[in-house]
Automatic annotation (TrEMBL):
Lineage: Bacteria, Bacillati, Actinomycetota, Actinomycetes, Kitasatosporales
InterPro entries with a match to the protein in the record: LysR_HTH_N, LysR_subst-bd, WH-like_DNA-bd_sf, WH_DNA-bd_sf
Superkingdom of origin organism: Bacteria
Protein name in UniProt: LysR family transcriptional regulator
Homology family: Belongs to the LysR transcriptional regulatory family.
Keywords, comma-separated and alphabetical: DNA-binding, Transcription, Transcription regulation
Domain HTH lysR-type: 2-59
Length: 299
């Protein structure tokens, strides 16, 4: 008999690629994770992991078991949801991990909606970059994520996650006052090919969006300045240090001193925002109203 708790450990190791990182995510010691994986290999009669230095990858048998683990764990989430519904659970806490502008755009309005429609649901917010919230959900640190599409993100249809699309947000070009393109009503990304750039650090989903927009326009941006803070990017642009692409919601309420903001034309200059929870948990009587409130706020 395969212990489903060990399947959760196998999935964490597959997600994090090291025993140490998986142990940290699961609040276990590395030795405990290794012991549970060894027991799982004994239960199945197969070697499940290839170990190379500090990293691990799944064997073919491990990949087969992981596919079944995703189905089993999703079914367990559904069972918990149905039991919670049976118990008429109308009150409790839901932890939502979201990036800053996602909090402002949809999560805060959703919390206000829930205060009227489901006063027993308490939402606890965890500020997390768009690429950090999904691992928090998969590791059980959060119940829901408000996240953005980025290279390497779990795709739509991933067996571990249930997703609800929320909104697509354009990027605007932030140019120094007096820039030759500042007189244009819109700016094509290709027109910025010869400029110095201000961009988020690699690993930030917005960095991926900027890189993709430039790639589709046929060039690689000459990034001279890096910051994950959009206010800093705008300030640098205002000082004439370069140009930037910034999500429109991040510019809302910001002092736009010495810069000109123009809509961007061309493909790729936008980000798609979605909500996600562990597959099977979307029907939980506490999670479902939060998903519905997020969708209503986005609409």
């Amino acid at each position: 008999m395969i212990d489903p708790r060990r399947l959760r450990i196998l999935r964490a190791v597959a997600d994090h690629r090291t025993v140490t990182a998986a142990a940290a995510a699961l609040y276990l010691t590395p030795s405990a994770v290794s012991q549970q994986l060894a027991a799982l290999e004994q239960e199945t009669g197969h070697t499940l992991l290839n170990r190379s230095g500090r990293g691990v990858t799944l064997t073919s048998a491990g990949e087969i078991l992981l596919n079944h683990a995703n189905e089993v764990l999703a079914q367990l989430e559904r069972a918990e949801a149905e039991l919670a519904a049976y118990a008429a659970g109308t009150g409790g806490e839901v932890v939502v991990a979201a990036f800053a502008t996602g909090i402002a755009e949809v999560l805060a309005p959703a919390i206000a909606r829930l205060a009227g429609s489901h006063p027993g649901i308490r939402v606890r917010v965890r500020d997390a970059e768009g690429d950090a919230s999904l691992p928090m959900v998969l590791d059980g640190e959060a119940d829901l994520a408000v996240a953005v599409e980025y290279r390497g993100a779990p795709r739509d249809g991933d067996p571990r996650l249930a997703r609800v699309p929320l909104y697509a947000e354009p990027f605007d070009a932030v140019l120094p006052t007096g820039h030759p393109l500042s007189v244009s009503p819109t700016v094509a990304v290709a027109e910025l090919a010869d400029c110095d750039w201000i961009a988020p650090y690699p690993g930030n989903p917005c960095h991926d969006m900027v890189a993709l927009a430039c790639e589709l326009a046929g060039f690689s941006p000459r990034v001279l300045h890096s910051s994950d803070d959009f206010r800093a990017a705008v300030a640098l642009a205002g000082a004439g240090a370069g140009v930037a692409l910034v999500p429109r919601s991040a510019l809302s309420g910001m002092e736009l001193k010495d810069v000109v903001v123009r809509p961007v034309s061309g493909p790729g200059a936008y980000r798609r925002v979605f909500a996600a929870t562990r597959r099977g948990a979307e029907a939980h009587p506490l999670v479902r109203p939060v998903l519905e409130a997020l969708a209503a706020s986005a609409a």
